Amino acid sequence: MLNPNFQTYNSTLTRRLVVYVLLFSSFITLLATTNQLYMDYSSDIDLIEEHLQQIEDVHLKSLTSTLWVSDTKELRTHLEGISQLRDMQFAQVKDEERVWTTVGTPQSKNVISRQYPMIHHHRGQNIKIGTLTVVASVSNIYQRLIDKVWIILVSNAIKTFLVALFILYICHTLIIRHLTRIADFVRGLHANTLDNTLRLKRESNPPQKMDELDLVTNAINQMRGSLKTSINALKQSEARSNDAQRMAHIGSWELDLVTNKLLWSDEIYRIFGTDPRKLEASYETFLEAIHPDDRERVDSAYAASVKNKKAYRIEHRLRMPDGAIKYVIECCETFYSDTGQPLRSVGFVQDITQRYQTEQSLKRLNRSLQALRACSEILIRAEDEQELLDKVCRVIVEDAGYHLAWVGFAENDNAKSVRPVAQAGYEQGYLNTLKLAWGDTEQGCGPTGTAIRTAQPSIIRNIPDDPRYALWREPALQRGYRSSIALPLIRKKQPFGALNVYARDADAFDEEEVQLLSELADDLAYGIITLRSHAERDQLQRQLQQAQKMDAIGQLSGGIAHDFNNQLGVVIGYLDLLENYADNDKKSRQWIESATKATLRCIDLTRQLLTFSRRQATQKTVVNLNTTLRSLKGIIARSVTPEVDVRYFPGDNLWLTEINDGELQDSILNLVINARDAMPGGGTLLIETSNRDLDAAYATRHPGIEAGEYVQLLLSDTGTGMNKETLEHIFEPFFTTKPEGQGTGLGMAMVYGFVKRYDGHINVYSELGVGTSIRLYLPRAMATKSSATVDDNQPLKLPGGRESILIVDDEIDLLQLADQYLSDLGYYTHLAENAQQALVALDEKSGEKIDLLFSDVVMPGGMSGYELAQQATQQRPELKVLLTSGFTSKTIAHNGLARFSTHLLSKPYRKADLAQRIRLVLDEKPQTEQG
């Protein structure tokens, strides 16, 4: 019996053999059965025919005779004998009139019917006396055939099954099991099993009696040996090919366009940075590995190549899983069928990243060298810092091929911001989005801030992924920036700015390139420093010349004003006296009043000249600029035209400054009037105060001011503005751009003198057609409260006294006028025309008490009022001193003489001024009593 464990029925060949055996056996059985049934059927039909013939030959004559005699009983007996014949179903005798007898039941289907005429010979005549009808049934024949079919089929099926089992057993034993082993051996045949030999489990046949299985076995073993040799050769060839591809960085691929199956060589997997065990090669996988910017171009090139039946070669980028970029050359050729249908595409990919980077590095180095040479030429020829910065940025972009270059300077404000000062390239508002700083903050963590803070180059090789560029990534990527470098600009080991360079490609800055750009940045810093030193030297020279000019003008104007003041003092004094002694004549008083106004206007002019010529501050108070501006709002509103819109922007928590508040008010009004005159058609005047911390860098750029904390007063108008030539002369006395008769030219000179007198700084910026901005920087006072203002407007009743006063003045008219003033006030007076006479008078009147010395400061004879006061107080320690002068630079007291500047009356003075100041000095308590 067949072993049930055999896998015979799992074999396709076995199943087919079983089917063929069964089909053939069934066919033969059916054919034989059909033939047998046909023969049996024919035999049965022939037998019925014989019976019918027998009836005609044997029974018909007897029946005819019986019918003639009308013997019914005998007829029936004959018919029953007929019905006993095989398959006879029905018999009937009838004549034309009636049916004589019937045996059986007639059927309409499956019958053979015969009618026999019954003819009787009577008297030589044939007389038809009736008809015999006989019907034979075929149904019994069919039933016998059916019964025989079942017997034949069952017996044949048993025989066929037994034969099939035998055949299967023989087939399995002799063929199938060996074929299965051969199949299993071949199926398991691969490069690692080629050393195994195929052997069948059966008795060995001698070589001369080898059957087909032995031939197959030997053929397979020979094929195994040949295959082993071929595989070893193929492995060696593949190894050599892989080594060649690996060394050349060239990978091959083949795409079956019918099955859409893609095969990659090992080198392609290495180039694409993927593991063959983790990635199935496909065209979609290939496209995903291409850089997004190149993907459509490569896909279109391949599609066009297939359509046009032309090979193509293209360079593109690959983006690695870690984000790195590779550069490759892609070549492809497609093969077609005879009908023109594309069958397969074959190509190779070559990694040229190193070559590309080397070429790009050489290009950049060459461009950087060209840029370095061009910048060196620019540095040699540069005469202006801004021009230098603009040209260097332009060279970096145009000659070196970078996308953007800009320079930023480090500000020393509270935010430690970075201020862009020059740029070239594709920018589109990018610098406005940066908001950079150089402090150790989030805004200062970028390359620019880091370079300034650390004094080292800061490189961002991949802007899309570097976390240091998170704050500025989106606007940078929108403009195509992929890498950047910030190079510090250093002066005396201290960075003051940075040169920033941006490239379109990632990893654009290699070591040699960084070195060249660093040299360029160092050269740029040197050029900036050199130009600044030249500019500072030129500016200092101009300032020295300006200072010398201003000093000369100040001395001249001060000397003229001092002498003029003496004469104006006489004029105004005697006008006051005339007013007191004049009668009630209206016209006379009108003349005196007009002369007084003109004289007072002359006094104001001389006071402005004296203010400009001063080099030492007058009496100072602690002032809050916001408070001063609030008190001046009414005057300012009346000083401008209705078309001028004055806007105030007072600073919060404004610092205090120690100055003369009166001089500050005069300066503000002068600036307001100038702004008004610059806006004849109306405009806007902005007045703003703020705190400013000016650093060393600002002091370096603006010689004449020291770094520190200042209070800023800004007046900005939208007027006509000034050109460069006008700005160079703006502070000169008597220089004015106003029409003749509408300005004295002393306003800005007075403001300049005021600011310099208190160690401040003034900065003027103006453009024609735009307007003018003037900034006053006044040093911060450490006081926390402003001083109370003293109201100089005293009551009309003049104070007098009975004290004795020594009056000293080289101007006889002023001497007599002062004597007249003080005598009218009740004082006892003594007169001297110079210091020597005064000392003599003090010595001669040693026994007479003199309470106060009232002396001019500038007098001939080699002794000033300060020196006279010193010697006089040495003789008479209790003597009080009041000095008067036009206060030019010559009158500045030094060393121990400065204490007499506490009480100083400016010329020209009027009777009320003199009366109040004399009384103030006389009533002052001695220092010992105050203490």
SSE layout:
Elements: H1 12-68, H2 72-83, E1 88-94, E2 99-104, E3 111-122, E4 125-137, H3 139-187, H4 212-248, E5 250-256, E6 261-264, H5 266-272, H6 283-289, H7 292-308, E7 312-319, E8 325-336, E9 342-351, H8 353-381, H9 385-398, E10 404-410, E11 418-425, H10 447-454, E12 458-460, H11 473-478, E13 483-491, E14 494-503, H12 511-581, H13 586-613, E15 621-623, H14 625-639, E16 644-649, E17 656-659, H15 661-677, E18 683-694, H16 696-701, E19 708-717, H17 724-728, H18 747-757, E20 761-767, E21 771-781, E22 804-808, H19 812-824, E23 828-832, H20 835-844, E24 852-856, H21 865-875, E25 880-885, E26 904-906, H22 911-923, H23 927-930
Determine the structural class based on helices, strands and strand pairing: alpha+beta
Low-confidence stretches: 1-9, 788-795, 888-892
| Overall pLDDT level | 80
> DSSP helix count?
23
Major beta-sheet overview = 7 strands, mixed
Please tell me what the overall shape is: elongated
> How many whole angstroms does the radius of gyration measure?
67 Å
Salient structural properties:
931 residues; alpha+beta; seven-stranded mixed beta sheet; five-stranded antiparallel beta sheet; 23 helices; 48% helix; 21% strand; disordered N terminus
Explain what you see.
The chain has 931 residues and is of the alpha+beta class. It is built from 23 helices and 26 strands. The strands form five sheets. Strands 15, 16, 17, 18, 19, 20 and 21 form a seven-stranded mixed β-sheet that branches. Strands 6-5-9-8-7 form a five-stranded antiparallel β-sheet, sandwiched between helices. The longest helix is centred in the middle third of the chain and has 71 residues, at 511-581. The protein is elongated. The model is unreliable at 1-9, 788-795 and 888-892 (pLDDT under 50).
